[in-house]
Amino acid sequence: MVSAELILRSEGASLSSERSVKRAQTMERQEILQWLREESNAALETLWSRADETRRCAVGDEVYLRGLIEFSNFCINNCAYCGLRVDNRTNRRYRMPEEEILDAAQKAASLGYGTIVLQSGNDPYNTDAWVAELVRKIKRTANIAVTLSLGEQAFETLALWREAGADRYLLRFETSDVRLFRRIHPSNCGEGHIRITLLQWLAELGYEIGGGMMVGLPGQSYESLAADLEICAQLDLDMIGIGPYIAHRETPLGRQAANYVLPPDQQVPNTETMACKALALARLMRPDANIPATTALATADKANGLAHGLTRGANIVMPNVTPIHYRRHYVIYPDRYSEVMDPDSHYRYVVDALSALGRPIGKGPGASPALARKGNGFKAADGGPGGDV
Questions:
Q1: In whole angstroms, how far apart are CA 123 and each of 69, 76, 104?
Q2: How far apart are CA 39 and CA 387, in angstroms?
């Protein structure tokens, strides 16, 4: 196999040139596959450097912090990989009162976060009208960008929440392989891939859209992961979330992974290095996207995962502002690196990590530079355009 390192070296352009950044958006399938299969540390250093330089040219050195609020772990879904699944009777369920959600949003604002991310299981208690009013209250009291991560919703619901002031929506498509998607979402047996369609709807509604995938799902092939990266580029995602699959023992996939794993030469491993390969390639293919160093990445390698993400293409971190007595029960996967950190401790941890890397904290909502060409973005509390303050 031709080393993927040679592909980059053959371009003959300066890494810092605008031409190099633009060239990176068009990567052939074979090139993606070569990088995903690359095992030479020396060659991978070329990939890491290229992704880091592309990040610097396209979105700058600033790292934007999003305050994550996990306000309910009730879920009526039964996804095969997720610890919040309805059949997991071992997890203590909770719903944060509205007052505590608003307090957490204020905490995020006081720490200087320009965005909060409201995340929940698929909880019927979260009615369309209640979420819309919650968004309005947060915009009035904190006046920061609001990202929603509330799963699959009807077009009318998404439109209502956008009108209420929500700026962004995170919805990982998880895998573009329809057969694999149906395996991990047994209740979703419709034709096609509903989340790809929903991401297109979200873009039509003017949301800043975030998608992405898990790396190393049992049954995920290299071809499948390469297709996932191509989908991220084709959807022109503003945010791309990539993290390794981490097994939860109270899920069917966690207990029965051996039944689905492909032969070694086909199965993508769920390692920190493989997740970083995908992250770096996503940066090369979508230079101006916001890409987080995810909690899963930092959990897979508690010593170096966060730093590796930030030096291999990432420019976003999501510190958790959920009160710690709730957070320990939001267990999509076990042993999160931030599980025992209160909001202040998590903030200090991230600040120290950024300081060690020489990366400044970004100010304001931190909208994707891609929004300048799309014409949408942060809404101020009055519902008008806010700009990236």
A1: 15, 6, 19
A2: 43
Burial, 8: exposed, middle or buried (Cβ in 10 Å; 0-12, 13-18, 19+)? buried
Radius of gyration of the chain (CA): 20
CATH number of the structural domain spanning residue 104: 3.20.20.70
* Burial class of 77 by CB neighbour count within 10 A (0 to 12, 13 to 18, 19+): middle
Single out the residue of 291, 288, 314 nearest to residue 373, CA to CA: 288
Using DSSP's 3-state secondary structure scheme, residue 197 falls into helix
Is 2 inside a domain boundary?
no
The C-alpha atoms of residue 119 and residue 126 are separated, in whole angstroms, by 11
pLDDT digits (tens, 9 = 90+) for 302-311: 999 999 999 9
Q: Taking 50 as the threshold, does the pLDDT of residue 13 lie above it? A: no
Q: What is the mean pLDDT of the chain?
A: 90
Amino acid at 139: K
Range of the domain at 121: 27-365
Give this prediction's pTM.
0.90
- Asked if residue 20 is part of any domain, the answer here is no
pLDDT in tens, 178-203: 999 999 988 754 555 789 999 999 99
pLDDT the model gives residue 170: 98
CB 60 within 8 Å of CB 220: no
When pLDDT is averaged across residues 356-367 and rounded to a whole number, the result is 96
Closest CA to 243 of 172, 195, 339, 321: 172
Count of domains forming the chain: 1
Residue 271 lies in a domain: yes
Give the separation between CA 279 and CA 307, rounded to whole angstroms.
Answer: 13
Q: Does some domain include residue 13?
A: no
The contacts of residue 94 (CB under 8 Å, 6+ apart) are 72, 73, 74, 326, 329
CB burial of residue 230 (10 Å; 0-12, 13-18, 19+): middle
